[in-house]
Amino acid sequence: MLEGNLEPIEQRKVLKLMKTMAYETAIQAIKEKIKTGEWKAGDRLPTVQQLAVELSLGISTVREALRILENQRIVSIEHGRGMYLRNDPLLLEDPTTTLEQLGNISLVSLLEARLLIEPELASLCAKHATDSQIQQLRYLADQMVVQMQKGGDFFETDMAFHQLIAEGSNNPVLIRMMSMIAPISVEARKQTNTIPNMRTKASNYHILIAIAIEERHAEQAKLLMEAHIREMLRMFIQ
Questions:
Q1: pTM for this prediction
Q2: CB 192 within 8 A of CB 215
Q3: Burial degree of 231 (CB within 10 A; 0-12, 13-18, 19+)
Q4: Cβ pair 86, 74 in contact under 8 A
Q5: Cα–Cα distance, 58 to 23 (Å, whole number)
Q6: Neighbouring residues of 170: CB distance < 8 A, sequence distance ≥ 6
Q7: Is 118 helix (H, G, I), strand (E, B) or coil?
Q8: Is 196 helix (H, G, I), strand (E, B) or coil?
Q9: Predicted pLDDT of residue 175
Q10: Is the CB of residue 29 less than 8 Å from the CB of residue 37?
Q11: pLDDT tens track for 158-174
């Protein structure tokens, strides 16, 4: 049952956004395994259940991602036999947008990159986001608090929150940059969620950022996002 103050139509928009973000994250993570050679042509893939655990995503989300990849002729799903990487997987992405050339990316490097991009995104979002986007953003922040208090996983909500800020910036270049780092953000969030009290701090920051954006305080939104990321970065560079 949905909680919060959104109208039913807005709730559906948020759920659609979260679902889209989740399976796009799964698709990118799977493609990254192919690009790095972890999965090779003809290999049998882990089960849907195993992938869901590995990617920290729901089974239905992973199943939807695999269905899309099958339509793209990247994987083959053979009922009763399993899933396989096709012998002739297509080029997955424009070579200029792959992360493969960057090698092994550390969590510190990712957080430093986010520190350069996301505070500006928050500022732009406060200036340019539509009223509907702002309402959805506040809903996601509230949902994250509820999920944390119940001891549940708020990974998908977290990803949707940051992606919505990017979309609210109304800057297609920065939106594209955020989508490029989405695959490695999956593993990064697994690590940051293990930091003591980080889940509580993150949910609190999300509420404050959402309020600043709602009130159109661009500089405050920027500073709060910067503080949020620096708090995580500080734990890894002590």
A1: 0.61
A2: no
A3: middle
A4: yes
A5: 9
A6: 124, 128, 129
A7: helix
A8: coil
A9: 83
A10: no
A11: 888 998 999 899 998 88
